[in-house]
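## Example record

The block below lists the input lines for one assembly entry, exactly as stored, with component labels intact.
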Amino acid sequence: MRYLTGVVTLELDKEKCVGCGMCLTVCPHEVFILSNGRAVIKDRDACMECGACAVNCPVEALKVQAGVGCAAALINTALGRQASACCCSAESRDLSTHGLMVDQTGPAAPKAGCC
Amino acid sequence: MGAAPAFRPLPMASADLQDPPGPVEITLPGLDQPFVTGSVESTVGKIPPISSSLNFQDHWGTFKTRWGAGRMNYKVEPGLYALGRPDAQSPVLVTANYKLSFDSLRSALPGRDVWILVLDTKGVNVWCAAGKGTFGTAELVRRIESSGLDQVVEHRQLILPQLSAPGIAAHLVKRLAGFEVRYGPIRAKDLPEFLDSKGRASPAMRRKTFTLWERIVLIPVELVDALKTGVFVALALFLLGGLGGPAGFWSNALSYGLFAVIALAAAIFVGAVLTPILLPWLPGRAFSVKGLHPGLVMALVLLLIKGPNLAVWPGRFEFLAWLLLIPAASAYLAMNFTGASTFTSLSGVKKEMRLALPCQIAAGAVGLGLWLWSGFLA
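Predicted C-alpha cells for the full assembly:
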C-alpha cells in the first residue's frame, strides 16, 4: 500500500556512507539498496519517516524529520496538548545527529488510540 | 508543527546516566505475577521463569486490550525473565513491557531456552515506544545494568525486534553497555527460523505488512474511541432534532433526530470499520479521500430510504445537509486511522490534513446549519 508521494524529508549523504547496511536491516519498507558498496535510496515514497535508519547510521549519513504519521497527534499538537507516554503529539525529531530522545516522563493519559 | 526538534542529546558515558555511584542495584521482576511459574536461582538473585503457552487469562487480557479496556495499564514488570531453561550461552531477546508484546514474544518460542529482557516502556508496544524514545538506548542500557545481565550470560549479544530500531542506536548500545545489538525479524513468529539460521533474516521478515487481519484487529479500539464521542453527539442531535419540524418536540425528535442518530452511526461504521477493512481497494492515497467515497455512498443510500421531499426547500436542505455531514464524518474518522497504520509518513499526513481537515470542518458546519434550517422551515 502506498501513501502520498513526493513528501518525505529523508536525505542520504552519499559521501559519508560506508556501506555498513544497517539502514537496509532496520528499514521496514525496503527504501534502501546497496549499490557499489554504498546505500542508495531506491524507493523514496515508501518511506514513512520512522527514523530507524538515521538513528542506526553510525556515520550520520542519514537525516530525516522523524515523527508519527498520525492525524490525531497533529490535532493534539494544534490544540496545545502535550505528548504523554501514549498520547502522541507531533513534534518531529530531527534525526541528523546522535541526538536521541531520552525517556518521556510525562503522565500516561488514559486514552485509547493509535498505540 | 515541525518546529525545534524535541530531543535531548544522549550522554555519551554511562556515568552520566542518572545512576548512583558505585555498583548498580539489581532489580528483578516480581515472582508473584500471574504468568510466572516459580523461581530460578542465579548469581543475581531469583529470576522469574515463564512459559511459552498462553492460558485463558492471557487470551482474555488480549481480547480486552484490543477493545481498549485497561489498555493503558496492561503491563508486566520490566527486567529479566527465563523462558524454558536458559543458561549462560542462551540468547537474550528484548521486548517492551506491554503485556501483548510480551505474550506475543514468549508464545512464539515454544520449546526454546532463552532469556527475555523486558524494558520499561510504560506499557506501550515496541514500535510506538521506539518512536517516542521510551524503547530507547538509555532505557536499554539502564535495564542491562539493573538486571545484572552481564553476570547471567557469558556472551555479549542481544536480539532486538526490528521495529525497536527508531529508538535504539545499535552502535551506541555497544559503546555504552558492551552488548552488540542484532535486529531480529519484525514478527515474533519468524523468530524460530531466525534463531535456527543463526540470525539470518529474509527480506520478507524485514518488511512491515498491513494485511487484512492486521487492520481488522485495530478496528475495535478505533470504534470504541469514536463511539465515546459519538454517543454524546447522538444525544445532542436527537434533542436538536426536536426543535425544528412541523409537529411537537418529541414527534420531531423522532423523525428528524432519530435519522440524525442513524446517520451518525452509519458514518462511524463507514469511517471506523469499513474503511480500515477496504483500505487497499478504496480510491485515493489520502485516508480522508478513502473514507469519503463510501461515506457518499452511505449518505445516498440512507437518503434514498428516508426520501425527503426534494420539491420543497426543507427537503432540499435536509438532503444537502446529510450529503455533506455523513461523508465529512467518515472522512474524518478515516483520516484518524493514519495513526494506526504502518506506512503513513508524518510529512504525508501533514499534507493531507492541511486540505482535508478544513474541508471536513466546513462541510460539517454547513451541513449542520442546513439541517437545522431545514427543520425550522418545515
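Chain B has two domains: 14-208, 213-377. The two ends of chain B are 45 Å apart (CA to CA).
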